[in-house]
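Hi there, hope your week has been kind to you so far. Thanks so much in advance, here it is.
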Amino acid sequence: MSQQLAYVIVTPYSLHKSRTGGILARLISRTGLELAGARLFAPSEELVRKYSEVIVSANDPQDRRIQELIRDYILQNLSPDPKTGRRRRVMMFLFRGEDAVRKVRSVVGNISAERTGGETIRDTYGDLVLDENDKVTYFEPAVLAAPNAEEVAVKLKLWAGYSDADGGVLENTIPYPAGEKPQRTLVLIKPDNFRFPTGRPGNVIDFFSRTGLYIVAIKVHRMSVAEAGEFYGPVREVLRTKLKDMVAGKARAALEKELGLKIPPAEEKQLGDLIGPIFGDNQFDSIVKFMSGRTPGECPPELRDQPGTETCIALIYEGVDAVAKIRDVLGPTDPSKAPPGSIRREFGQTIMVNAAHASDSPESAQREFGIVKVGDNSFKCAVEEFFGK
C-alpha cells in the first residue's frame, strides 16, 4: 500500500485542558506511524469559515447530523473570541505511513452519544450529550480528522495555505491578570523518545502539563550537525575542563594496572591536563551525534546545515516563571539524581540520553530560539512535499 499523509487537529478545548500529551501518545503508539510535522495555529475567521465549508461530505461515514454538529462547532469554537477578538490556539499533527488515514481515524474514533468505553480518543476526551428530546446539550469532539485521503488533501492544502499567516509562534493568545509578566522557554523532546513508535513523546508532554504553562509553538525538528554544534557549544568548554579530574583518575588507574608502577599526584594532574580536553571533545561529538545522527567529523561540509536523521519535538512554553517551572518538572541532567516524578527520573537513562532538554535561563532560551527556530514552517513544507504546491 502506498504512503499516505494524515492529520489530526487538537481543538482549543483539548489544548486548554492539557490533553495534548495523552492524545499524541495514543496517536503514535496505536498507529505506528511517523510523526511528520506539527504546528500551532491561531486561526483567522477566514480560515475557520473556509474549513467549515468543506466539513459536510457524502464520503464521511458519520451521519449528516454529526457532520453538521462538527461544522457548527468549528465556526463557534475555532473562530476568534467574539467578545475580545483574541484568537484561539489550535494544534495540528501530521502523520505519514502506509494506510495512514484509516489508522489515524480508527484511533480518533467517531462521535456517538452511546459511548461504551475509552477505546478511542473521542471515547476518552470527547462528549456528545443529548436531552430527553434527543436535542444536543453539549458537544466536544476533542480532535478533528478527515475520513479519507481525498479530503485529507483538500483540508491540508487549505491549512497549509494559511500556515504562514495564522501559524507559528503565537502571540497574544493567552490572557494574563494585570501585573503578571509571562516568560517563554524552549523544550526539546529528545531523539531517544523516537527510536520506535511509542507513547513516550506524548507522555513527556503530559508531564510538562502539570506546570500550568501554555504551549505557544511546536515543530517536529531534525537538528543539523551545525545546529547541534551551536546549540551545545557552551557545553563544550565545560566538558573539556570539568572532566579533567575524573579522566586523570581513570588514566592513572589504567596505567598503574597495565604498567605496574605508581603515578604520583603531580603526574596524575598532568594526565588530566593532557587527556581531559581530548575526552571532553569526544563527549561533545557524542552529544552532536545523538541529536543530529552524525559527529562533526563524519559529516561532509556541504551537509553540515542539512536536517539530520534524528527526530525531536521542539516546543515553546509560555507563562509566569516558565523557565523555573519547566526545569523543576524536568529534573537534573543526571537521571540517577533526579527526584521521583520528574521527567528524567521516569524516562531518562544517562546524562546524555535523558529524555528532554529545557532552557536553563531566559537568556539561554533566547539564544536557543534563534538556533532551533520553532516558528519555521516545516509543516507547510511537509504538505507541499507530499501533495505538491
